[in-house]
Amino acid sequence: MANLIEFSLFAPYNKEAALIGSFSDWKDISMEKGKDGYFRTQVELEDGTYQYKFRVRSKSWFVEPDEWVEIVDPYATDIDDPTQNGIIRIKEGEKIIDTYVWKHDDKPLPPDHELVIYEMHIGDFSGGEDDPYARGKYQHVIEKLDYLCDLGVNAIELMPVKEYPGDHSWGYNPRYFFATESSYGTTEQLKHLIDECHGRGIRVLMDGVYNHSESSCPLTQIDHDYWYHHDPKDAEFNWGPEFNYEFYDENLDTYPARKFIGDTVRFWIREYHTDGIRYDAARQIGNYDFMGWIVQEAKHEAGVKPFYNVAEYVPESPSITNADGPMDGCWHDSFYHILTDHLCGDTFDLEQLKDILDGKRQGFMGATNMVNYLGNHDQNRLMVELGNREIFDEYAFKRVKLGVALLMTAVGIPLIWMGEEFGEYKPKTIDSAKIDWTLLGHESNQGLFQYYKGLIFLRKSNHALYTENIDFFHEDAEAKVFAYTRWNDQGSRVVVVVNFSDQYLAGYQVPHFPANGTWHEWTNNYDIESGDDNILIDLPEYEAKVFVWKE
C-alpha cells in the first residue's frame, strides 16, 4: 500500500531543483516552486526506509552561476554517514523519525534554581574503563546514570550531538541541524537516554551551535549569502560560515537564518523533549534581538516544563542575562579564571574573590543568571593546572576540595566537567580523551568523589544556597582568611570560612558569627558551638569549613 509523500526544499531564489533517491534509482524527479519559496514534489512510497538527496541550481558565489549541486535536505532528521544521504522513514503512510514511546514525561523535573549541572561529551564519558569493549555511545551513558544519581547531579549538559563530519568531534562543527550524531547511536537511543534521565529527575540540556555551521552544511551550497554573512564578522573567532540574523527577505517577509534556527530549536524540544540549551559562542552571535526571540520560541515550545537558556558569552557581561537581556543565564567565566589563579597560589585578591562569589558585585541580578564552574570542555581541569605548577598528590586534592566548597556555596548554578569529581587529570584535547574510571579505585580520588557528593547534597537540600543572599562578615586579607554567610527567609543558614594561605591556623577566632548556638561542620561531620558572636576553630591551609545552622 503506497501513499503520496511530500518532499520540500526552501530555496526561494534558485531556478530549479530536483529530488533523487533510492526510490527513483537516483534519477531526477522534478520539483515545482511555489510563491512561498518552496520547491515541492510528491512521491508514492510504501512503508519502509529510503535514502534521498536534492539537486539544486546553486546561487552560492563559490560555484559557477546556476551550477547543479547535490545536497542533503537541510531538514533531514537522519543521515547515512558512509554515503552522506538523507534518510526518510515511512510508517502507516506517514513520515516518522522513529517509533520511540516516551515513558517518563510525567516525572517532575527540578526548577532552574535547584540545578547542579554535569557537562559531558558522549564519546569520552564512558569507555575509559579497563575492559575489552569500545564504548562511547548513548547506551553507555544510560549504564552510568546510577553513578550520576549517586553523585547527586540533577542536570546533564551534552556537548553537541547534531550530526558532524566523521566519527569523533567535540560537535562544534554541525553539518546537519536536525540529525543526531550517528556514531553515538540511533535517534531512539538518544531519546531513551533522555527519557531515562527524566525518569531519575535529571534534566537534559543541549549544547546548541547557532553562531556558525560546518562549511559543507547544505545551506551553504544552496544560496550561501541568503543564510550566512558573506565574510566572517571577526576573523579571529571564525569557526565556519556565520549565520546572518540581521538579513530580512522583504519578498517573503522572513528572516531566513532565524527561521531555520527557530525550526531546529523547536524540533529538538518537541522531538527529543530537551530541557534547556547552552548557546555556544553567543558573543559572536551578538544579536540580542534574535537571541531574545529564540529564547521565547524555546520556552513556548517547552510549554509548562522548566527550560533553561544559558549563553556562553565570554568574557561574560551581565547585560546578556539581566532584566532586558535575552538569556536566563550565562557561563560565569571570571569565576573560573579568578578561582583557578587563587587555588594555584598565583595571586590573592580578596575583592576579586568576593566579586565572583557574589555576582551582584559584577552587576548580575539573581542566582540563576550565572553558571559557575572549576572547569569545562574549553579549559584544562584544575588538576592539570595544579600539576603544571608542581602541585601534586594530597596537596592538589586539598586545593581542589577548597574549590569545590566555594563552587557549591557561591551564588549561582554549579557546573561540573565530567571526571573532575574524582580527580581526572587528562589535559584538554580535541582528540578522543576518555575519562579514566579506574581512578575511582584510589583512596584519594574516591575521597574527592565523596566530598563532591556531600556538598552537592548540601547545595540541593539547603535552600539558603538557592538565594542571592550572601554577606562577607569577616575579612582578614593579611592571613588570607575570609568568611561569608548564605541564608534564606525561612531560617536556613550556611557559613563558609576560607583559608587561602599555606599556613595551618590553630585556634583561629572568627568574629561577628551570624548566630549563637549549634552549627554542624558539613565536610568533616561534627557539631560546634558559637557564643558571644564568635567561633574558635582550627583552620588548615587551603581549606574551607562549611557550617550549617542547626539551632
Structural summary, described in words:
InterPro entries: A-amylase/branching_C, Branching_enzy, GH, GH13_cat_dom, Glyco_hydro_13_N, Glyco_hydro_b, Ig-like_fold, Ig_E-set. Belongs to the glycosyl hydrolase 13 family. This is Glycosyl hydrolase family 13 catalytic domain-containing protein. The protein is an alpha/beta fold. Among the domains are: 3-96; 332-461, no CATH class; 470-549. 25% of the residues lie in helices and 26% in strands. It contains 13 helices and 28 strands. A hairpin with a 4-residue loop joins strand 8 (79-80) and strand 9. Helix 6 (256-272) runs parallel beside helix 8 and helix 12 (393-409) runs parallel beside helix 13. It is elongated, with a radius of gyration of 26 Å. The model has no long low-confidence stretch (mean pLDDT 96).
Name some characteristics of this structure.
single chain; 551 residues; alpha/beta; eight-stranded parallel β-barrel; seven-stranded antiparallel beta sheet; 13 helices; 25% helix; 26% strand; elongated
Number of helices: 13
Percent of residues in helices comes to 10-25%
Broad structural category: alpha/beta
Largest sheet: 8 strands, parallel, barrel
Q: How would you state the average pLDDT, rounded?
A: 96
Overall, the morphology is elongated
The percent range for strand residues is: 25-35%
Radius of gyration: 26 Å
The tally of strands reads: 28
Unreliable stretches, pLDDT < 50, 5 or more residues? none
Taking the alpha carbons of the first and last residues, their distance comes to 74 Å
Give the strand line-up of the largest sheet.
11-12-15-16-17-18-19-20
